Structure formats: structure tokens, C-alpha cells
Amino acid sequence: AAAAGGGGAVAALWSEVNRCGQNGDFARALKPLNKILQGSREDATALHCKVVCLIQGGSFREALSVINAHAKVLPSDVIAFEKAYCEYRLNRIENALRTIQSAGQQTDKLKELYGQVLYRLERYDDCLATYRDLIRNSQDEYEEERKTNLSAVVAAQSTWERVVPEDLGLREATYELCYNSACALIGQGKLNEAMKKLQKAEGLCRQSLSEDSDVTEEDIEAELAIIHGQMAYIMQLQGRTEDALQLYNQIIKLKPTDVGLLAVIANNIITINKDQNVFDSKKKVKLTNAEGVEHKLSKKQLQAIEFNKALLAMYTNQAEQCRKLAASLQSQSPEHLLPVLIQAAQLCREKQHARAISLLQDFAEQHPASAAQIKLTMAQLKIAQGSVTKACIILRSIEELQHKPGMVSALVTMYSHEEDIDSAIEVFTQAIQWYQQHQASQPESPVHLSLIREAANFKLKHGRKEAAISDLEELWKQNPKDVHTLAQLISAYSLVDPEKAKVLSKHLPSSDTLSLKVDVDALENSHGATYVRKKAGKLSGDSQQKEQGQGDVKKKKKKKKGKLPKNYDPKVTPDPERWLPMRERSYYRGRKKGKKKDQVGKGTQGSITAGSELDASRAASSPPTSPRPGSAAAVSAASNVIPPRHQKPAGAPATKKKQQQKKKKGGKSGW
């Protein structure tokens, strides 16, 4: 800094400022600068030096206020870089852009800042051109940093704009360049290659930081956190959610200072949890609300976080919060599908399916470009309600999907379920006509021919033989050498016109041309054969005789004649109703009621009816039906005496057999 103003005191103050600047002690330099400005408030050099000292101390807001307060003294050409840099650091990106563009002279440092501003505004094409120009036209110690920034722009294009990056020929000598290259590969879906790049970046980072003796292992792990976070993201994309979750949680335990990294990791954990472990998701969502997150992430990242917040509110039954977040998202991105889908899902959880379908219908009418996806969702809701026919009508209204094989298959299946065969055939016809109109130059399109064949099979299955024959004839004309189609056509004609089928069968190739040269013995003796023929040479003479003898026995066996009843008389014609139960026969008059049977259970309890006898002598003479307690027949040993209730009756089997014989004698024959 040059001395300004007169007098020895002022010169001494400038000497102090100069000494502090050379030592990098910018905070101490502010004191002599303020004394200089007390004597000369409009000293442009002192004001400029003060602004620089404030910026070096991180006081961007105070530096900007000094610039704005002395706008007449500090012209834009002199102070443009400092002003734009303060605005950039205060996240006033649009203001910084205007300041840079209004500067009269575009210096290298302004171009560097311009590239950073364009990156923050996500104007990646302009940013790429700026860094290319800087690398081409400048040679200094910051070349490696410019290349790193250039690779970061390419990675952002690949990730957020799905642009295939061009090979810039950058030598990946640093871990930053390796990391950016890995991010570009993730955007292209090359996950395995990206993982290898990240592993290389991790090795370079450890090697670079371990060379510094002041760097601890904790510092290295903190620097590696962003690389590990990207590794976990690849694992998540590959379906290795457990490994990804473990690595995410390890990074969170390190408590990195980068709020953007923490927000992204917390969001990814929430997506893994989905509707499970909602309490953990509620804790993690707080990390996404940290101060300054909105300045660290891209618009798409912030949008994804807001979507997941709305879904989490839905999963935790916070209906009002879910609606509020979804409505806010829809106002920010009116064309986006997710906000309206979240609102419809919330309405369905509240059993308001009609309102959900109405909401989707309104969105489809207002945004025709997204109508197809919305109508697919509407059809799904109709199917869930059991309105399959209405779902079919919605699906058939999606003109751009009517001819797709998947749509045709879905519609035919649904119409078949509703037994509406005519509508199913109409779906086939419309799809075939579409291919005939739009692929006139390719009449033998595989999809077209496949649809015709499926239509013919469907018609044959549901009895529409003439229509099926028409489709098969068209197929055969397209490819007269197709034996499979010809066989189907002959089979169809055999049901309608056998003579025509005979005529067509002449076109079939001869059996000689169709015969396959197959070695039957080799096939039967192969490793996978289920049946292996035994070789004759291995059988001995005895075994052959034995097998032959068994064969003779089998031949002599005759079928046994059925048994006839004992009272069978061949002269008498059998009763034609003998196979019917007795109660169902025409001559059945009911059972005769016995006297004793009628008297059973009549009278008061304990009373004696007429004709009944209580002769104790008869009861004593009759054999007991079960052994008496303590009888010798029931006891095998004195040490193993079984209580009376647990004893097995000695005469029970014989008694039971006698009772069965008595019942058999009293039964009536069916003859």
C-alpha cells in the first residue's frame, strides 16, 4: 500500500499498515487504517485497504457496507472484484453476477469468480466455457485448481443434466480429480467403474494427507467422509442397502462440519427406511434442516429432500403436514409429477379415492405432457376399487401407449377377466393396425408379427375360428417357410373346413426332412436320462429264467369274479332298487316299533315299568363285561398295581367282537 496524506504521523500509520499486510496480520492493520480515515474520510486507497482487510478476516457483510457507503469514492472498476466476492460469500449469487457483468475490465480474478458464480447458478455450459478459456490463457500455480473445477462442472452435467461428458484429457493425479471423475461415471450409470475411481481417490487422499505430520487420523477420516458417502450411495443404487446404511451411520458418527454432506446422507437413510423405522427417519430429517444447507446443495438435491419430507409426513400419519408440503412443492414446480402423486396417495390413505382420481384428472388435463403417467396411476386406483372396465377405458385413452405390447397384454388380460372378449379382440386389432400404418416400410416387424400370432391364439382359445384363420393366413403370407404358422393354420382349418386343411397339409415338409438324427442308445445312456435300458449281456441265465417265469405268472393271472350273496337265486331277477339305501326304496314302509323300545325312558326317573325284571341271580350268572377291581387277571405284579380306572378290561376285545356279530345277524341284506 502507498502512503497517502501529509505529515509524519500519517506516513507512520501507512508503514504500520504495510508491515501488517506483509505479515498477513490483517486484523491489526485495521487499527492504523481507521486512524487514517479519521483524518481523511474519502481516502480511496485507505478505504480499499480496509475492504481487503475485512474480507481477509471474513467480515463480508461489513466490507460490503463500506463499499456501498462510499460508492462515489470507490468506482466499480476498482472495487468490482471485492464487491462481487462479498456478495458471492453472502450467497447473493444473482447480485454477484450483475456486479461482474457490469465491470468495465474482465480481469483473470473476475473470470475465476465468474466461473464459480455460474456453477452456483447451475449454468454448467457457460461455466465450462469460462474454465476452458481460463486454462487456455493463463499459466500460474492455480492451474491444478482450475482443472479440478472444470472436472466438477463435467460431473455436475453428467449427474443433473444427464449429459454424456466428453473426455477432457485430465490426468487424475489428485484425489479431487478422481472423485469428480467418479461422480461423472455415477451420472452415466457406470457404478462399478465409479467405485474403482473412488477407491483410487481414497488411496490418493490418504497418501497426500499422511505426508503432513500435523494431520491426524481423525482429520484424514473427516476429509474422506465425502468419498465414503459417495461409496455408500453406489452401494444403495446396487441394492446393498445394509452395507450402505452401515457406512452412512459411520460418517454421521464422525460429525463432519459439512452440513451439505450430512443433509444428503440423512436424506439417503430416510429413503432406505421408507415406511419402516420412522422414528430414526424423524431424527435424521433434522439434519436436513440445518442452517446453510440450501446454499450447499443443488436445486434437485433440495427438491428430493422436500419430497422425502412430504412422504415421511404421510407415513407418520401427519396428513395436514403432508398436504402442506406437497402443495408447497407443487407451487414451486407446477410441472412436476411427484407433488400431485403424493397428494393423491394421502387421499387414498384417507379412503378418499374419488377425490384422488379427480385431482389426478385435473392435473392430466392441465399438463398433457405428463398425462400418460397420471392416467396409469388413475387406472391403478380404479383397479384397486374393483372397477376394471373403467380402468381399461382410462388405459385405452393413452394414445402413445396403445400399441405397446405391455399395454396390449394388460388390456387383454383385464378384458378377459371381465369376460369381454370382443373388447379384447378390438385391442389386438387396433394395435395391429397401428403397426401397419406406422411401419409400412417394415411389414415384417417382430413386434407386429408377434401381435398377430397372439391375436390368432386368443381367438382360437375363445372360439373365434374364422377370425383366427384370417390372422394365421396373413402370418403365413408374410413368411411361407414358417412351418409353425402353417401347422397352426391347418389345425384351425380342421375345425372349420377339413378339406381345406388337407390341401394345406400338402405344403408341410416330408417326414424325412423333419427326422432328426438322434442316437437313441446314447440318449438313454446319457447322464441326465431318467430311464436307462439294461444291456442284455449283463443278465445271467438264472435271472433271465426268473424274469421269464415272472412274466408267465403275470400272463396266467385272471380277474377274480365278484362275490355273490348267500341267498342269491339265479332264477330270480335281482331287485333293481338294490343299490339304493333302504329308506329311498319304493317299497319301504318304515321300521316296526318294538314294545320294549317304546317303553325305554318312559315314566319318572327310577320307576319300574311293567314287564321289567330285576333278577340278581341272572345278573350274577352272566359273565362280567369288565374285570372287577383287584382281580388276578388284571394284576401282573404286586409292585405295579394299576388303579381300577386305569386298568384295561381283560375281556373287552372278545366282548366287542361278539356284539359286532350280533349286530351283523340282525342287519338286513341289500338283495
TrEMBL record:
One of its GO terms (biological process) is SRP-dependent cotranslational protein targeting to membrane. PROSITE patterns: TPR (PS50005). GO terms for molecular function: 7S RNA binding; ribosome binding. Pfam families: SRP72 (PF08492), SRP_TPR_like (PF17004). Residues 554-564, 655-671 have a biased composition (Basic residues). TPR repeats lie at residues 225-258. Residues 566-587 have a biased composition (Basic and acidic residues). Keywords: Coiled coil, Cytoplasm, Endoplasmic reticulum, Repeat, Ribonucleoprotein, Signal recognition particle, TPR repeat. It comes from the Eukaryota. This is Signal recognition particle subunit SRP72.
